[in-house]
């Protein structure tokens, strides 16, 4: 593959020059983009930009998508969240909609910037909440209405984000129905009952199941807890701290599961747990 010099070139020139295909023997990516109305519209916006500018405006943080601040395990909203500026803003509007629908008006008024001083204000609030809850309203329009009617205050950080790092994400999201966002939250609240160890710091639960699986991590290695694995001291210390956070979340019951048949690891587990508490899962299956 020949190296392409992007110095001083427009993005559209680089796309044409690179001739990247969807798959071996497949169509050109640029042709696929142009055949999709939404992608084509976005491509038309960025094609006269430099590659650096396009790259800086087209980043999506996948971790952000799953870090909704409502904790389904504790049925409460968590203060900390890794959501990006767009999703945080949508989460705030959604929370207001939910509070209003369920009649939790005191909580609603504590969060919103909307002021009620007369019956006219109540009617105005009812009208805007009805419009925001409509089936066909877009995400972009919801944010516009929320700001216009001062349900939420204008946010310079949000504006900066959608004009820079979140430009691509916002261009796609703003034309989507708000109901699709609502559906995604309903799914996360109902079905996602697993939380990463990084997300639970400060939270407590009656029952906790901790899964120790190294996966493809290189910053952590759970084997080091049992005298094996990485010899890197930083990795060992990070792993110990993470393990401590995980096991101290349990208020009543704690189960730690580690898929391993290594005898040394099993013996070392006795430093953490009583012998009677160390169980071979396969023996339970056999029974």
* Widest sheet, order of strands: 1-2
Describe the largest sheet.
2 strands, antiparallel
Instruction: State the total count of DSSP E strands.
Output: 4
Q: Supply the number of structural domains.
A: 3
- In what range is the share of β-strand residues? 5-15%
Total count of helical runs of at least 4 residues = 15
Low-pLDDT parts are 72-77
Rounded to the nearest angstrom, the distance between the terminal CA atoms is 58 Å
Helix proportion range: 40-55%
Query: Could you tell me the radius of gyration in angstroms?
Result: 25 Å
What order do the SSEs take from the amino end to the carboxyl end, as H and E? HHHHHEEHHHHHHHEHEHH
Query: Class by helix and strand content?
Result: mainly alpha
**Quaternary structure state of the chains depicted:** single chain
Query: What's the pLDDT, averaged over the residues?
Result: 81
Anisotropy-based shape: flat
Concise overview:
Helix content is 48%, strand content 7%. The strands form two sheets. Strands 1-2 form a two-stranded antiparallel ribbon. The protein has a two-stranded parallel sheet with strand order 3-4. The termini are far apart.
List the keywords.
two-stranded antiparallel ribbon, mainly alpha, 48% helix, 15 helices
């Amino acid at each position: 593959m020949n190296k392409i010099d992007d110095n001083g070139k427009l993005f559209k020139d680089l796309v044409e020059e690179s001739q990247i295909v969807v798959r071996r023997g497949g169509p050109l990516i640029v042709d696929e983009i142009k055949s999709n109305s939404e992608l084509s519209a976005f491509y038309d916006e960025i094609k006269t930009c430099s590659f650096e500018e396009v790259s800086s405006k087209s980043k999506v943080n996948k971790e952000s998508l799953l870090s909704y601040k409502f904790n389904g395990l504790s049925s409460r909203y968590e203060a900390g969240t890794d959501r990006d500026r767009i999703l945080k803003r949508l989460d705030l509007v959604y929370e207001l909609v939910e509070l209003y629908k369920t009649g939790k008006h005191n909580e609603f008024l504590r969060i919103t910037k909307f002021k009620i001083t007369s019956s006219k204000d109540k009617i105005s609030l009812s009208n805007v909440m009805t419009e925001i809850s409509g089936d066909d309203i877009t995400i972009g329009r919801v944010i516009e209405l929320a700001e216009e009617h001062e349900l939420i205050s204008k946010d310079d950080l949000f504006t900066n984000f959608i004009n820079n790092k979140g430009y691509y994400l916002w261009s796609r999201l703003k034309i989507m129905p708000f109901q699709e966002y609502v559906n995604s939250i309903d799914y996360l609240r109902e079905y996602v009952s697993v939380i990463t160890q990084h997300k639970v710091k400060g939270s407590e639960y009656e029952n906790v199941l901790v899964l120790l699986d190294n996966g493809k991590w290189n910053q952590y290695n759970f084997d080091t807890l049992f005298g094996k694995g990485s010899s890197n001291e930083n990795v060992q210390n990070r792993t110990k701290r993470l393990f401590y956070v995980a096991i101290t979340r349990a208020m009543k019951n704690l189960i730690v599961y580690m898929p391993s048949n290594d005898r040394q690891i099993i013996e070392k587990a006795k430093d953490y747990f009583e012998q009677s508490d160390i169980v071979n899962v396969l023996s339970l299956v056999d029974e």
